[in-house]
Amino acid sequence: MSTISVPLTPDLERFIDQMVKSGEAANKADVVRKALRRMSEEEAVEAVLRAEKEPTLHGDLRTLVKKLK
Fold first, then answer.
1. Helix, strand, or coil (residue 9)
2. Helix, strand counts (H, E) of the chain
3. Is the full-model pTM beyond 0.90?
4. Distance between CA 22 and CA 17 in Å, rounded?
5. Distance in angstroms (rounded) separating the CA atoms of residues 45 and 5
6. Which of 1, 21, 25, 51 could connect to 30 by a Cys-Cys bridge, CB 3.0–4.6 Å?
7. What Å distances lie between residue 21 and 14, 25, 45, 50, 62, CA to CA?
8. Where are the domains of the chain?
């Protein structure tokens, strides 16, 4: 596991401290890990939603290939 140093605004630092004090996170690093996991999950959901909007092909593969020729 690696460690990174990130400058924070006073507002973000207060938010992180509040998350720890309220018990929603074990420590400051836990807050950041949870935030990154949430961002990753949101991106995955967005990718699925984008894929659902893409046109799809339905039917027999041989027939569809003939239509593409």
1. coil
2. 3, 0
3. no
4. 9
5. 29
6. 25
7. 10, 8, 30, 38, 62
8. 10-68
Question: Biggest alpha carbon distance in the chain?
Answer: 64
Give phi and psi for 63, each to the nearest 5: -65, -40
| Tokens encoding 15 | 């938010």
pLDDT one-digit tens code per residue, 9-46: 999 999 999 999 999 999 999 999 999 999 999 999 99
Check: CB of residue 55 under 8 Å from CB of residue 64.
no
Angle formed at CA 24 by CA 41 and CA 19, multiple of 5 degrees: 100
3-state helix, strand, coil in the chain (%, to 5): 65, 0, 35
d(CA 31, CA 51): 30
